[in-house]
Design brief:
The chain has 309 residues and is of the alpha/beta class. It folds into three domains: 5-59, no CATH class; 78-235, Rossmann fold (3-Layer(aba) Sandwich), CATH 3.40.50; 238-308, Ubiquitin-like (UB roll). The chain contains ten helices and eleven strands. It has helices at 5-16, 21-34, 42-59, 89-96, 144-152, 168-179, 198-207, 221-235, 261-268, 272-275, and strands at residues 78-82, 114-120, 123-129, 156-162, 186-191, 213-215, 238-242, 251-255, 278-282, 291-293, 304-308. The protein has a six-stranded mixed β-sheet with strand order 2-3-1-4-5-6, sandwiched between helices. A five-stranded mixed β-sheet has the order 8-7-11-9-10, with helices on one face. The termini are far apart.
Length: 309
């Protein structure tokens, strides 16, 4: 009798960690051969997922090797994943995006910043994995100066650390960032949380006081979703929706806190900023559904806006 399908799916994901290209396809085929050949039910869904992964892996390029340390910005915000070597940053980035990243159980698997765009609540956010920082990064140990330069251009930091290992390497990373006078909004991701005990998480939270801690495991989809939510809060942006009068199709958009209807219009089209006279609005900032508001009305998270030109 096959094992419970949820357990099977966790084991499959664990088998795929760190594999890309032909190695990933080979492993997926081996997984497929081991699965029961059910036509319906959860195991049929798992087979469909595995077949889809084979097709996607065939179509993806292998790891992109970059000759420049510069990272081109994409999305509405750039968030850096920072931490010591070999704490799960690459696996986390891979779980959040379509990028293939070389991973391994040894330090310095990633040697250059790796950017990837992930969709959060329908809005593109760029995550950049910064290769493992070490003590002395500010004096250019491990190429630290260039990496700190990339970090300086980000909008926020996610400090990443394996919850099951000692915290001292992470404290060294934080000290290097502070010594470089990089002050950005930050949170703490406790990776490999499926292997951690509550005492591990408490120890990590105590060591990194002042940062919100998010426990995440790439084998737990719910924890990955909670991590996405935490990253969105870290951006500090406000998500609103625009739609055309008479349409139910809503387009998500990110704006700065305090943005007005006029600012939203400018984001839709530069010329619309001047011609926009106001909007009908639904959501938290409206006193009643469809309220007519002026250009100076301040929008908030999850407002739905129909601009009036």
């Amino acid at each position: 009798m096959p094992m419970p399908h949820r357990v099977q799916m966790q084991l499959i994901k664990r088998r795929l960690v760190g594999k890309d290209g032909s190695a990933r396809i080979k492993e997926l085929r081996a997984i497929l051969a081991d699965l029961p050949d059910y036509k319906n039910g959860p195991y049929a869904d798992i087979r469909k997922w595995v077949l889809g992964e084979i097709d996607q892996t065939r179509g993806r390029s292998k790891v992109v090797h970059r000759d420049s340390i510069a990272v081109r910005r994409e999305g509405v915000s750039q968030i850096a994943l920072v931490g010591p070597p070999n704490v799960g940053k690459s696996s986390l980035l891979q779980a959040l995006s379509e990028i293939q990243v070389k991973t391994g159980d040894y330090a310095f698997t990633t040697l250059r910043p790796v950017p990837a765009v992930t969709m959060i609540h329908g809005v593109p956010v760029q995550l950049v994995e910064i290769p493992g920082l070490i003590a002395g990064a500010g004096e250019d140990r491990g190429g630290g100066r260039a990496l700190l330069g990339v970090l300086r251009g980000a909008d926020g930091i996610v400090y990443c650390h394996d919850a099951t290992v000692p915290v001292e390497p992470l404290l060294e990373v934080r000290a290097e960032v502070e010594a470089a006078n990089i002050t950005l909004p930050a949170i703490l991701a406790a990776t490999k949380a499926d292997e951690a005990h509550t005492t591990h998480l408490a120890r990590l939270a105590l060591a990194m006081q002042g940062l919100d801690l998010i426990a995440v495991s790439i084998l737990d989809d719910d924890s990955v979703d909670r991590f996405r939510d935490a990253v969105w809060r870290l951006t500090g942006l406000v998500r609103v929706f625009t739609r055309r009068p008479g349409s139910q199709e809503e387009d998500p958009m990110a704006v700065a806190p305090g943005a007005t209807i006029a600012d939203v219009a400018a984001e839709v089209h530069a010329e619309l900023r001047m011609s926009c006279r106001g909007a009908n609005i639904w959501g938290p900032s409206a006193r009643f559904p469809g309220q007519l508001v002026g250009r100076d009305h301040v929008v908030v998270e999850d407002d739905i806006i129909e601009l009036i030109a």
